[in-house]
């Protein structure tokens, strides 16, 4: 059977992608941030999964304000980098895993989560920046990726509890797939930031680090945090962090297994106008 081996959490700031694409990673402003991912690249190379299930939010590229699904799973064989207004990022095409994606959709929908099935879409920086941070600039991504888009753009957005429980359903789906695949679940977005209004530029490092503490040690309690706390403490775009709860809910300890091992933790302020958080958790073998 397939199994989830690890979860990865990271911000997906668009300016990070631009810094990589324009060869600015060694500049004084950016170098401390990218240094925090050096270990992660080595870890991923040594622990390469067969499939990455990547939770992210679309930024009005695949979905417009005309139609925004709460949860959407990409079931295509491949996904092209999106043109977000200045041309597609110069990164490889994302190769999907239609068979596992279809199985996950079947299982999760039967567990009463309504997913939108997406057979064709482009993927924006929300998905490609995490891949670049963890993989560098390869000719091809190291394995197939299943994109899973969550609406954290237009209210109402899903609750932390809903996302956490979706992670539980995802684990069940993966473990019922009849092929010995090693799967990683990545939760992306955040951390604290606000892009508009009187509080534009808000960063709350203390709250962010407390979030990381609870994500590791008290994910069920963290799942009960209401939307208003994310907005008040982490800014209007801090709500992206509910997506991390999908990845955390998919870990074995949530289903009664041993606590995951903290492989790497990193926090940096700022990247553009955002606090960057990063965490790698491994399931006990």
Question: Top keywords for this entry?
Answer:
285 residues; alpha/beta; Protocatechuate 4,5-dioxygenase, Chain B; 8-stranded mixed sheet; two-stranded antiparallel ribbon; 33% helix
In short:
The chain has helices at 14-21, 31-35, 38-46, 98-110, 125-135, 160-175, 205-217, 219-222, 227-234, 242-249, and strands spanning 3-10, 51-56, 71-74, 78-79, 94-95, 116-118, 145-150, 182-188, 261-271, 274-282. It is α/β, with parallel strands linked by helices. Strands 6-3-7-2-8-1-10-9 form an eight-stranded mixed β-sheet, with helices on both faces. A two-stranded antiparallel sheet has the order 4-5.
At the fourth CATH level, what is the homologous superfamily?
Answer: LigB-like
Please give the radius of gyration in angstroms. Answer: 17 Å
The rough form would be described as globular
Structural classification: alpha/beta
What do we call the CATH topology? Protocatechuate 4,5-dioxygenase, Chain B
The poorly predicted ranges are none
Q: What is the number of independent domains?
A: 1
Q: Briefly, what CATH class?
A: Alpha Beta
Could you report the average pLDDT, rounded to the nearest whole number? Answer: 97
> What order do the SSEs take from the amino end to the carboxyl end, as H and E?
EHHHEEEEHEHEHEHHHHEE
Strand content: 15-25%
Strand order of the largest sheet: 6-3-7-2-8-1-10-9
Largest sheet: 8 strands, mixed
- N→C terminal distance: 14 Å
Examine the secondary-structure arrangement and name the CATH architecture.
Answer: 3-Layer(aba) Sandwich
Give a count of the beta strands, DSSP E runs of length 2 or more: 10
Tally of helical segments:
10
Report the helical percentage.
Answer: 25-40%
